[in-house]
Design goal:
The protein is α+β, with helices and mostly antiparallel strands. The protein has two domains: about 1-40, Pemi-like Protein 1, Chain: D, CATH 2.10.260; about 40-75, no CATH class. It is about 40% helix and about 15% strand. It has three helices and two strands. It has helices spanning about 15-20, 45-50, 60-75, and strands at about 25-30, 35-40. A two-stranded antiparallel ribbon has the order 1-2. It is flat and about 50 Å long. About 0% of the residues are buried. The mean pLDDT is about 90. InterPro entries: SpoVT-AbrB_sf (IPR037914). One of its GO terms (molecular function) is DNA binding.
């Protein structure tokens, strides 16, 4: 974990190692107990292709699995 401090203008500077690893663009998600920085890929479509490159199921199969999981989690 790394600490960072806002400057007098409210800017946060991320350490170089984090910028090199995650990039320069982030979504800021406000959570009930803090915030979360979520890196934004330079090419989001390419990032999705890379993420799902090994998936051999169709979108319909994935959608059905997600639906079943949501119903199970809700207690059917």
């Amino acid at each position: 974990m790394t600490d960072a401090t806002l400057d007098d203008r409210g800017r946060l500077t991320l350490p170089k190692a984090l910028r090199e690893r995650y990039g320069d663009h982030y979504h800021i998600a406000q959570l009930h107990d803090g915030i979360k920085l979520i890196p934004i890929a330079d090419d989001p479509l390419e990032a999705l292709r890379d993420e799902f490159a090994g998936v051999e199921k169709t979108t319909s199969e994935l959608r059905e699995e997600a639906r079943e999981a949501a119903l199970d989690e809700a207690g059917r």
